[in-house]
Amino acid sequence: MQRREDWLVPDADQVALEIILREVEDLYTDILPRTDGRRTVVQAGGNIGIWPVALARHFDCVVTDEPDEFNHAALMANLDERLQGADRARVMAYRGAFGARPGTGAMDRFDPHNVGAHRVKDGSEFSIMRIDSLDIDDCDLLCLDVEGYEHAAVLGAERTIKHSWPTIVLELKGLGERYGTTDVDTITMLADWGYMIAGHVHRDVIFRRRP
């Protein structure tokens, strides 16, 4: 593990850290202003912890996951180093991925020098869980950047979403096609559930429940 910009980062990374540090600013400028509550946020992927640490300063509970073993080790180390006491206790970080149904998966490190670009593939390296299995009844924000696995993760959160009607932020850049879904499929599904597009920031789409 290496230290860059005062964050612990997997040795392989040459790209992701600077991108994530830049993009986390979207939380303050575009996401929090469109999020009504500050109870529970579900965020993925946790990567090395930059987003979970930022969210822990604004929400009562942060639930995150990260399937890559090296990213997850950095995530846990950064959480322990940067958050203390009650702030650390409010973050639950799982090793695994959120999906449409329980199962297992493996990592496709197709660009090994960018640890933010790893993808889920078939395998048995980690567990895949449904967000609904966590029985969260006060979700105010669902924020997913999981390299094309967003549609599956949202499907696995249908009960949670329809109970709490959180603001939903998804990175949609066409990567879902590798799993058989398009960005239009995801947008249409959320529209059918009662959501509308409330904004865009870079490649993220922000959804809110229609009035």
Tags for this entry?
single chain, 211 residues, alpha/beta, seven-stranded mixed beta sheet, globular
Describe the structure.
The structure is a single chain. This protein has 211 residues and is α/β, with parallel strands linked by helices. 30% of the residues lie in helices and 30% in strands. The chain contains eight helices and twelve strands. Strands 5-4-3-9-10-12-11 form a seven-stranded mixed β-sheet, sandwiched between helices. A three-stranded mixed β-sheet has the order 6-8-7. The longest helix has 14 residues, at 69-82. The relative contact order is 0.16.
- Tally of helical segments: 8
| Rg (CA only) | 16 Å
Distance, first to last CA: 47 Å
Rounded mean pLDDT is 97
Please give the number of β-strands: 12
Largest β sheet strand count, sense and barrel closure: 7 strands, mixed
Q: Helix share of residues?
A: 25-40%
Strand content: 25-35%
Unreliable stretches (pLDDT < 50, length at least 5) are none
Order of helices and strands: EEHHEHEHHEEEEEHHEHEE
Strand order of the largest sheet: 5-4-3-9-10-12-11
Coarse morphology:
globular
> Which class best fits the helix and strand makeup?
alpha/beta
